[in-house]
Amino acid sequence: MTDPICALLYGHWKDQTRLGALPVRPADRAAAYRIQAGIEDFSTALLFGWKIAATSLAGQKHIGVDGPMAGRLLAERRVPDGGATPLGNNLMRVAEMEFAFRMAQDLPPRPQPYAQDEVLAQVSALHPAIEIPDSRYNDFVTAGEAQLIADNACAHRYVIGAATSFDWRALDLAAHKVRALRNDAVAEDGTGANVLGDPRIALTWLANELSRLDLILKAGQVVMTGTCVKPLAIAVGDRIAGDFGVLGTVSVTIA
Q: How far apart are the C-alpha atoms of 148 and 70, rounded to whole Å?
């Protein structure tokens, strides 16, 4: 049976409505993740993957949390690369440029933490990606960590670009520059260092967060590691693109 708090949140997500706060707040991160897990019951497809929220110090400060949070990517919320997505009643109204890793093998839970090299050895591909997050709370800035995790860490819609054909393992992803374009003009830029210091560090964090929760990071799943540029303000009619240099591009139109 799906958790009633999760059902409440999903109903607001589906109807593009909001609430002030949960009727009963999760006691801690573990309880919040248990609520979040119920969102898979509303999907007709296998879980597409995971997102990481609050991977920059500025992002953590903005929403009053001490570290990153994991959320689930539902397959139904994926937008085709180059396609269009409605802005609707989106409260956050931003697009985020992200490094996304596709897993080749399962990483099952275990007592000892995964090392970065172990996690990277199980990656099959790197994709440029765009996330368009949203929140089910009227004021996500003050909702707090537990409520945000229960609300799927602000997951909403996302775009996954083509897997890069470049040898990304030879690059310093922390120093790699990414540009965010709005209507063909560069609006923001940043580097992989904005993602917990390195998107590979963020990926390793996610693997270990799932392990602590007794969850499997599964083969074929994609992990979006968090924005590497300042979140880009979006409006209806905007064409948003991420230029990842030799790693490729990804784009979406806001309908």
A: 10
Q: What's the number of domains the chain is made of? A: 1
Predicted confidence (pLDDT) per residue in 105-152, tens digit = 999 999 999 999 999 999 999 999 999 999 999 999 999 999 999 999
Of residues 88, 89, 122, 94, the one with CA closest to residue 108: 122
Q: Is the dihedral of CA 73, 76, 79, 81 positive or negative?
A: positive
Containing structural domain, residue 40: 4-254
SS (H, E, C) 119-151: HHCCEEEEEEEEEECCCCECCHHHCCHHHHHHC
- Are the beta carbons of 27 and 59 closer than 8 angstroms? no
Query: Residues 37-67: pLDDT tens digits?
Result: 999 999 999 999 999 999 988 889 889 898 9
Q: Which run of H or of E encompasses 114?
A: none
- The domain spanning residue 116 has which CATH number? 3.90.850.10
60: β partners: none
- For residues 190 and 97, the answer to whether their CB atoms sit within 8 Å is yes
